[in-house]
Amino acid sequence: MTPADAPTATTPAPQTIVTERWDDGRLTVNVAFADWLREQNLTTCAAFDRLEPTEVARHVKQRVTARFEFDATVGDPVGGRAFYIKRHGRDPLSEYVKPLFRLTKPVLGARPEWDAMLRFHEVGLPTMTPVAFGETGPVGNRRSFVMTESLEDRERVDHWLADRRDDRTPETTIQRRALVAEVARLARRLHDAGMHHQDLYLCHWLLPAKVTRGAGAPGVPSIIDLGRVRCHATLPDRWRIKDLAQIYYSAGGVPRSDQVRFLRAYLGRPLAAEDRDLVRRVRKKARAIGRHTRRNDL
């Protein structure tokens, strides 16, 4: 098998997530999990607030992401799995004011991520499975959360690439090129759907269970951390450039030939002279990201 014969992974089919409103409209649930949530007595926002996490995964300002594990019950296909709940506290006034100076709308609370997950499933983009979303309190003192099913046994794409940076064997080359093409196709699907991520670094792409070298295509990566995703009727070029620059920046060390393959797969055609401006803008933005990262010790 030659690199050109690299196997392609299968992306999920478009799916509409059906939801129900509970707790006087404060709680929205995925109906696929409704029976299980009732069995766990998770039918109100207050019940979710009382849950004690198994592990706190991340705590940033007003946002806490925690892992919750539930014991399996007889005949229960969901119990025994793990879930994550991302809780948003009251947003400070600055989060309302800053977007005004940028002529953008505030992206606050858990609702944007919930809406983005539903939209991702609608257009067949692999991501987390949404379970529940809750929102309480008036504007300015609002608290919210989103619950998702855990993506178990995953590996970050940036780690996968870094681990194989010096591996030039034919088997790994085939895997890497298949992965590069799949990331490009998913990025294009995201943008064609009028969405941009704003944090599309490869640390937010998760591959299924670790793949042994030479074991075929590494699989379809899921895109996570959708809290800043925005939707447009027509996606402005500047947001497309930003997403592509974030991928480019976080793929440091990928051979230049694979960078070209990424662009070909993203554009769906061979590169042409008119694509030079796109490449220039992406590289310029990536350099700006690098300077910002170093300046802020990120």
From TrEMBL:
Q: Name one GO molecular function term.
A: kinase activity
EC number(s) recorded for this UniProt protein: 2.7.1.-
**Which InterPro entries does this one have?**
Kinase-like_dom_sf
Residues in coiled coil: none
Which class of enzymes does this protein belong to?
transferase
**Origin: domain of life:** Bacteria
Which keywords, in A-to-Z order, does the entry hold? Kinase, Transferase
Tell whether Transferase is among the UniProt keywords: yes
> What name goes with this protein?
Lipopolysaccharide core heptose(I) kinase RfaP
What is the protein's species of origin?
Alienimonas californiensis
